[in-house]
Amino acid sequence: MPSHREDLDGAALGIIRVQEIYGLYPETLTGGNLTGIPAPLGPDEAFHIAQVAYQHRRFQLAFLWASESLTQVKKGVEADVTETALLEYLASSSLHFGDFNEAFFSYQQLLQHDPMNATVREQLSECEIKLLSETSSDITSLEKSSDPYMALCRGEGIRMTPQRQRALFCRYSTGGGNPRLMYAPVKEEDEWDNPPIKRYHDIISEKEMEILRSLSRPKLSRNKVSNRGGGRISNVRVSQGAWLHDHEDPVVARVSQRIANITGLHLKNVETFQVANYGLGGQYKPHFDALVRFPVPGSFDEKAGNRIATVLIYLSDVQYGGATVFPVAGVAVQPQKGSAVFWYNLLRNGQRDNNTRHAGCPVLIGSKWIANKWIRERGQEFRRRCSLSESE
Ligand SMILES: O=C(O)CCC(=O)C(=O)O
Ligand SMILES: [Fe+2]
Most buried of 25, 38, 134, 345, CB within 10 angstroms? Predict the structure, then answer.
């Protein structure tokens, strides 16, 4: 079981991650204005985040958090961390980042605290040389990441033209004439054209969502993967989620059946529900749900086939962040409680559709709950016709 320390480091990493993506300065986060952070962050917490950022070579954020801590200490906020420790972090982070002006300034202040310190004197003259011979970067201005995944998370870079937009519709669907839906058609909305992504509104009630969440909670905490928040920055997948079987509760079976009715796909070869919860900074980096070549020995079981389609149910709203984005296609789908999005991962010819690469953006405010249902190829032959074409 992770220690308290690991939990704290995980929380710090969550904060670092959302800052990088959304371009947020520490002072935006310390006030406690953002409800995702339970308490205002004081100088010691700010220093801890600076240390974690430094360990992960995020020198700019290390600098910004150390200066936030120093500002608070100078204002007289009580803290364990000393000004000298903070100045050392400021100086070292600036050097690593290549801001020799800031490094010089921090070493000067360190020298005022300890005028005889020979190492600091040496560092100061090194900075002077660098300032004369190299261009200095500016560590104080935070640049947002230009990564297409992260840009989409901020709501930038959505690739839709008005012409394409006009072809997207909203309709009431009976799942292709399914008798179970004839009297209660479901509201279907086109979210995107390529790949086609559909959203089904209000497909699950508040009560059903609460049951899915509460059935999952004990499993999530048992595995200590309770949210997709903590963990190393480089992790592709932070947690595994909780598997919910249809026999565990009639509600699980009922929701599975409803998905089959709506999508028109056969329930025989579907996976059990996977429920996941993301806390502050929780994300799921870009990935495919289907395998590129199938079958791969030892991966998905061969009999059921590849993951032909994905149904992703949002069991919560998210106040800020947490969109499901498709970086190749250029689309961001916002979580909407009680709705489900559906897309095919495979083209009709059985090849993986590379436009279906997708990710779950870091949660900035709130908590995100989802339930996934992956539908496998076998059994869908008569429900979705195959094609021999290269591109379909
Ligand atoms: O959290 C999301 O929005 C996406 C989750 C996902 O892609 C997955 O669980 O496979
Ligand atoms: Fe996925």
Answer: 345
Helix (H, G, I), strand (E, B) or coil at 170: strand
Assess contact for 241 and 274: CB atoms under 8 A. Answer: yes
Instruction: Please work out whether the CB of residue 360 comes within 6 Å of at least one atom of ligand 1.
Output: yes
Q: Is residue 228 lining ligand 1, measured as CB closer than 6 Å?
A: no
pLDDT at 27: 87
ipTM associated with this complex: 0.99
Third-level CATH fold of 159-376: Jelly Rolls (2.60.120)
Provide CATH 1.25.40.10 ranges for the chain: 24-133
Question: Does the CB atom of residue 324 touch ligand 1 within 6 A?
Answer: yes
Q: Which residues contact 267 (CB under 8 A, 6 or more apart)?
A: 256, 257, 260
Q: Encode pLDDT of 206-223 as tens digits.
A: 999 999 999 999 988 765
How far are the Cα atoms of 164, 186, 202, 245, 309 from residue 168, in angstroms, in the given order? 7, 17, 19, 35, 20
pTM of the full structure: 0.83
